[in-house]
Amino acid sequence: MNAGGEGDNPLPGPLGQLLKMLEEEGEALVEHLAELRVRLIVFAAAFAAGMTIGWLYSPHVLALFQRAVGRLIFVAPAEALMTRVKIASAIGLTLALPVGLYQAWRFVAPALFPEEKRLLRFFLWAGSLLYAGGLAFGYWVVYPVSLSFFLAFGTDGLRPAIVVSRHLAFFLGTTVSFGIAFQLPLALLLLVKAGILTAQRLKEVRRPALFACVVAAAALTPADIVSHVLMAVPLVLLYELAVWLAPRFERKSESA
Amino acid sequence: MSKSFNLLDHLEFVRLRLLRAIAAYAASAALGFWFAPFAIDALMVNEAGLSNLVFLSPTEALRARIKLALAMGLLLGLPFILYQVWALFVPAMDRRTRRVTLFLIPAVYLLFVAGVAFCLVAVLPLAVRFLLGFGGEQLHQEISVANYLSFVIGFTLPFGVIFELPVVVIAFTKLGILRPEALARQRKYAIFGIFVAAAVFTPPDVVSQVMLAAPIVVLYECSIILARLVEPKRAEADEVELEGGV
Predict the structure, then answer these.
(1) Closest Cβ–Cβ partner in A71, A76, A78 for B140
(2) How many CB pairs under 8 A join A and B?
């Protein structure tokens, strides 16, 4: 009956194809959805567990902040609570991210060709390592350097009393944004792999691209010159890394 | 010709009512401005560990005072504003409706004030103590006056509004939209919904949730009783209307 109905009134284009596929492979689809549901629940559970750990750990983070700035204050009634919730969520998300990526991988992998699998595996590992590298660079270099740079502008009569929510924004701006910005070479290599960019083209546009790196660094960091420079330099290096790696990612079949 | 004259006349009337309402609000806000420093002292919850506030920018103290004056202006001027709104609709009402709606004004106002007072006396200290408890050795408390007043106003106003529940229920019963039996039948779900809403609107601790939910449940029960008192009259009125129509 369904097939007949479909034949009577075929929807044009991809929507029709989707409907046809739904009818032909309905059971398989339901199975997939059930699997997706389980994987999402696993991720949500990991996030909840990570957030609990983050909540228990958040006083230590506040102590860390307080040692870094001297005097840490909260200026709105709910700010202390909200800051702890934000710290807990950030820690929870960080802890749950590997679980989420693994679940996504397990969900997608069966549908991929070996070649694609290899590529995805490379991108996942490289992305995670670059993200961790960006975080580490931000945490151990950018955050302390830019913070001490700014606090040095205080004097005996001008003492820091840093508002905790703003300090948290500053902290995330100097760490998480580096983890994200460090994904630049992967984004470029993905475009090369897709045939949108070529290694040759990457070399040709080097000058405007480096300028774009500097501009993007200004946009991604808190409005200060120190973390701006500290981001622009690694972005330029990462662009060069992408230029160096790009020939290996070019499409062989099309050039042949 | 006479129609346009009437319209102009009516607009003139609306303008008068609007100006009087604005004047009443302005006067009570001015009173609130004068009274604001005392009010700020009174609003600080000493027993919750809040004994001083700071201002973080040069203009903040004045801005906070104006904000508080506007809120207090609403609290003080509400009966006058309500009266002007009522007077605006007087020409459209018959004598009985006029009398009933005029009595609604003090009811609305008293319920609003009761809600605000309940929040300030019973719930606000709990909430402030709960929230300030997250500060500590590493995180010093320097609550700024504008932030604190925004918090207090944003926390108190919903109480004043929610306490209007009986008036809303009576109005809907009179209009025939609600029936007291339906309210009584849905009690289980209503109480559950009230507790869920109270959990959403208060800081995440059980005490302030119950502090908000309990009075609403009481108001809900009062509404049912009042609606039962109101309803037979509505039926009579319908009959009278029907007879009059026939």
Answers:
(1) A71
(2) 60
ipTM: 0.73
A164 inside 8 A of chain B by CB: yes
Supply B63's token pair: 């801005």
Query: Any bridge partners for residue A159, and if so which?
Result: none
Q: Where are the alpha helices (DSSP H) in A70-205?
A: 79-108, 114-137, 143-151, 164-181, 184-193, 199-204
Interface check A161 vs B, CB under 8 A? yes
Q: Give the list of residues 6+ apart from residue A32 with CB closer than 8 angstroms, or none.
A: none
The whole-angstrom separation of Cα B133 and Cα B208 is: 14
User: Are the C-beta atoms of residues A256 and A171 closer than 8 Å to each other?
Assistant: no
**CB contact A56 to B (< 8 Å):** no
| Between residues B59 and A6, the one the model is more confident about | B59
DSSP 8-state class, residue A69: H
Closest chain B residue to A64 measured between Cα atoms? B138
The one-letter amino acid code at B17 reads R
> pLDDT-based confidence at A209, cuts 50/70/90?
confident
Q: At residue B205, what are phi and psi to the nearest 5 degrees?
A: -135, 155
Residue B1 pLDDT greater than 80, yes or no: no
Q: B139, B149, B205: which to substitute to probe chain A, counting the most A Cβ within 10 Å? A: B139
What is residue B245's predicted lDDT score, i.e. its pLDDT? 41
Mean model confidence pLDDT for chain A: 85
B33: its two tokens: 């401005």
Q: Are A15 and A75 in contact (CB under 8 A)?
A: no
* DSSP conformation class of A1: -
By the CB < 8 Å criterion, does A73 face chain B? yes
How far is the C-alpha of B221 from the C-alpha of B218, rounded, in Å?
Answer: 5
| Lowest-pLDDT range of A36-50, A163-177, B112-126, B196-210 | B196-210
| Residues counted in chain A | 256
**The two three-digit tokens of residue B177, written as one number:** 């939209």
